Amino acid sequence: MPVQPRTPPGVLELLPPQQLAFQHMLDTIRRGFERFGFLPVETPVFELSDILLTKTGGETEKQVYFVQSTGALKQADAGKLPELALRFDLTVPLARYVAEHEAELNFPFRRYQIQRVYRGERNQQGRYREFYQCDIDVIGKDTLPLAYDAEIPAVIHGIFRELAFGPFTIYINSRKLLRGLLESLEFAADEHLHVLHEIDRIGKQHPSDIQARLADGPSIMAGGSDPAKQHEHVQRLFGLLVEQGRDSRGTLEALRRFDRPSPLLAEGIAELQQVYDGTLALGVPDRALQINLAIVRGLDYYTGTIYETMLDEHPRLGSICSGGRYDNLAGHYTRSKLPGVGISIGATRLFSQLVKMNLIGQVRGAVAHALVLQVDAALAAECAGMAAELRAAGLNVEVYGGDDKLGKQLKYADRSQIPLAVLYGSREKDAGIVKLKDLRATAATREHDVPRGELAARVKQLVGEIQ
Amino acid sequence: MPVQPRTPPGVLELLPPQQLAFQHMLDTIRRGFERFGFLPVETPVFELSDILLTKTGGETEKQVYFVQSTGALKQADAGKLPELALRFDLTVPLARYVAEHEAELNFPFRRYQIQRVYRGERNQQGRYREFYQCDIDVIGKDTLPLAYDAEIPAVIHGIFRELAFGPFTIYINSRKLLRGLLESLEFAADEHLHVLHEIDRIGKQHPSDIQARLADGPSIMAGGSDPAKQHEHVQRLFGLLVEQGRDSRGTLEALRRFDRPSPLLAEGIAELQQVYDGTLALGVPDRALQINLAIVRGLDYYTGTIYETMLDEHPRLGSICSGGRYDNLAGHYTRSKLPGVGISIGATRLFSQLVKMNLIGQVRGAVAHALVLQVDAALAAECAGMAAELRAAGLNVEVYGGDDKLGKQLKYADRSQIPLAVLYGSREKDAGIVKLKDLRATAATREHDVPRGELAARVKQLVGEIQ
Question: Which domains does chain B have, with CATH numbers?
Answer without folding.
Answer: 16-45+87-356 (3.30.930.10), 370-462 (3.40.50.800)
